[in-house]
Every structure is written in structure tokens, then in C-alpha cells.
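Quick one, C-alpha cells below. Sequence please?
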């Protein structure tokens, strides 16, 4: 998402947060990362992020700030306004109030970026493609659901390909042949992986044909 789109989405968030914090200003600009803002023109004014704000009582105070690079947009050196000495922290990011209108009563914080480091088994995408090409049908081998049959041409080549022997169980690099793969629909593929080790294709098929 480009900066203009972000600015449009965040246009009302600054004023709403400042009102929630009982800090009325003539203008408030919001940025989730506290780094880029639209310029200020009415004072007192504030630059706001999810956890607090940076207040400018006058245009002189704003334009003379050594922490802002003011041009067509305001740029604040990373990590953003929270690192500026005059920043007023109202809440941590975790309990900052939601400014998005929702019809539900319950809300939670989502979307923070985390760096996750883990090992995963490399998959050969060409092998998956070859399995699709060599299969007489891309209908699910468990329930016979066909994406092409239900959704038409847009989904002609769609299915999911399942490793009958999970790669996670491999102790080293191994050869995989087409007979080691199964064509499944998304639902059956998820059910296969509801336990570890996964259900077999036959076990999931039996769930569909067994007593109700």
C-alpha cells in the first residue's frame, strides 16, 4: 500500500485518538509507524501514532523541530515519533484504543509484524506441477470435489497436492515420486493435517463414508 492510500485510510484516526485521550487540537495527523505524515497547517496540532502523540503549540515550534523533515510530507527518522524526547506516551501499542468502526462488541489487537525464524522442508514446485499435469482429474481423491466443476474455467487448474509421507518426517533430503503425492481439495487437505502425524487419505475417506 502506498503512502497516499495509507494517509487516506488514517485521516480520521488522529483526531479520534486525541479526542479519546482528551487532548483536543486543531489538527491531528496519524501514522501507524510514526514515520510519514501529511503536513500540519492548523495549530495547536499533533502527530499521532497508536501509542501517543507529539504536540506542536505553534507553527514556529513545528517548523523549527530538529526531528522533522518537512516537505510535501513530514518524515520522522525511524523508529518514528515515539523516539522524539517530547513524545507523550498514552498507552502501549497493545492497549491503544481501536479507531476502526466495527459492528461487533469484541476487539483485539492484530497485525503487528513479528520476525519468525524456523526451519521448513523445501518443496519441489515442478514436481507438484507435474503431478497436476499427469493426473487424469484434478478432483479430490477423498471427496471427489472438483474446483473446475463447481467454479468453472477460472479454477480449471486448481487443486492442492498432498505429500503422502510428510516431508517433516524426513531425516534427510529424499526423492519424491508422483505416486507419493495425492490430489486433494482444500477442505480435505486441512482435515488430513488435523493431527500429527497426518491422517491417511483412506482414513479421511472413511470419515465421509462411515456411519453418520
Amino acid at each position: 500500500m502506498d503512502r497516499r492510500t495509507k494517509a487516506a485510510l488514517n485521516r480520521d484516526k488522529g483526531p479520534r485518538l486525541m479526542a479519546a485521550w482528551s487532548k483536543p487540537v486543531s489538527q491531528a495527523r496519524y501514522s501507524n509507524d510514526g514515520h510519514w505524515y501529511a503536513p500540519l497547517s492548523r495549530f495547536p496540532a499533533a502527530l499521532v501514532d497508536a501509542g501517543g502523540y507529539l504536540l506542536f503549540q505553534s507553527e514556529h515550534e513545528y517548523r523549527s523541530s530538529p526531528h522533522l523533515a518537512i516537505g510535501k510530507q513530514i518524515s520522522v527518522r525511524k523508529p518514528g515519533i515515539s523516539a522524539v524526547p517530547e513524545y507523550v506516551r498514552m498507552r502501549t501499542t497493545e492497549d491503544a484504543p481501536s479507531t476502526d468502526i466495527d459492528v461487533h462488541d469484541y476487539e483485539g489487537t492484530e497485525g503487528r509484524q513479528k520476525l519468525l525464524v524456523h526451519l521448513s522442508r523445501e518443496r519441489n514446485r515442478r514436481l507438484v506441477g507435474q503431478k497436476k499435469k499427469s493426473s487424469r482429474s484434478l478432483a479430490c481423491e477423498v471427496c471427489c470435489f472438483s474446483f473446475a466443476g463447481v467454479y468453472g474455467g477460472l479454477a480449471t487448474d486448481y487443486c492442492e497436492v498432498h505429500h503422502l509421507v510428510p516431508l517433516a518426517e524426513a531425516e534427510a533430503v529424499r526423492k519424491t515420486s508422483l505416486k507419493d503425492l495425492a490430489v486433494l481439495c482444500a477442505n480435505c487437505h486441512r482435515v488430513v493435517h488435523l493431527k500429527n502425524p497426518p491422517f491417511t487419505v483412506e482414513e479421511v475417506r472413511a470419515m465421509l463414508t462411515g456411519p453418520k
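The chain has two domains: 3-95, 125-209. The longest helix spans residues 125-134.
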